[in-house]
User: Fold this.
Amino acid sequence: MSTIYDVGIVGMGVAGSFAAYRLAKESKLKIIGFDIGRPPQKRRRALEGFFGCLPSSDGKLYINDTNKLTKLVGSKKAKAANNYFNKILNNIYNYKITKDKDVLVGTSKKIIKNGFNYFLNDYIQMYPKEIHALSKFVSDEYDKHNTIQYAFDTEICQILKQNGNFVIHTTDKQEFKCKKIIFGPGRIGWRFANNIFKHFGIIENNDIAKIGVRVECNSSLLKEYNKSNCTILKDKLEIGPLSWNGTVIPEDHIDVALSSFRSNENRWKSDKVSFNLISDEIFPDRGAEEADRLSKLTFILTNDRVLKEKISLFLNNKSKISIISEFSFLKEAFNELFTIMPTIENASFHIPTIITNPPKINIGDNLESDISGMYIVGESTGVSGILAAAETGIIAANEIIKG
Assistant:
């Protein structure tokens, strides 16, 4: 007779890892963690499993993540998860919250005058040393218990619900049964999440593709922004967070690389500032698929690499992506951008750039989906960010422990 696990954790990135930590430490539930990548202490890059997306990130934990999560789960649960996470972090080092600088007064007025809003991004900065220490601290807690098993270096091909249990099939022809699952394939697994949500028929809205570019210029051109990490919003446009003195790097997904940013090691230091210029573009009932298609198409057109071009080339219809009609919105977006950043007309942009969110589903304030026993964590909740991912994992674990 096959083992029936109390909890299956699908995706052992940040969200899944903290869910497993909480369950291992606070319960005696039998747990199995699934990931396409490597087990604890064996991973190296984002695609390689345990804590995968944290070592490949810029290491900034934006405090606003908790505020965004509050809208989904309420202030009490969000605050409790944040406190729990902070206690874990205190075991690693004496971290501090860096207060984000505000932009200069004249620039603030210009932003508001042109119809934009903006908010500051206070953050905790983690470096590789602390990131790896945190990873070891969490995985050491797993080793103290016999409650966690792993199905790593394998891919899930199917999740079914039969006779009250979730039945998980992997590509190496194994079958696992779980009473409940915590579903968090993360930023890398947005396509997989889309397929699972389709299978269970729980997609509420798949109209929006969050697509755009990552703008980059010399930081001297944006002195009036005072090295603020602010995020700027107008209608369907999102600009930011502004990221300073680092390098735009390719973030590897299975068959495409997306523009990303890193500055938490000396080898990434630069005199540049970069930020996402993202728009919510409407594609009825196919938003996730269009984001996927456009990222792949752009990647192919640019010879399987992240493209860097001048904004002026695109505005003059001479860019490699000028032939892709879906990016025509960028002309208006760039012109809107110039009203608050007039000095960057000769700046460059990087593409493909997308926000890898799966379609929207209904999630309760306990993070349970419309499928009883399926808890949603990480990017699949629609709330992005490393801190939010950790906190959603903790909240889902709390809810399962409460029964």
About this structure: The chain is about 30% helix and 25% strand.
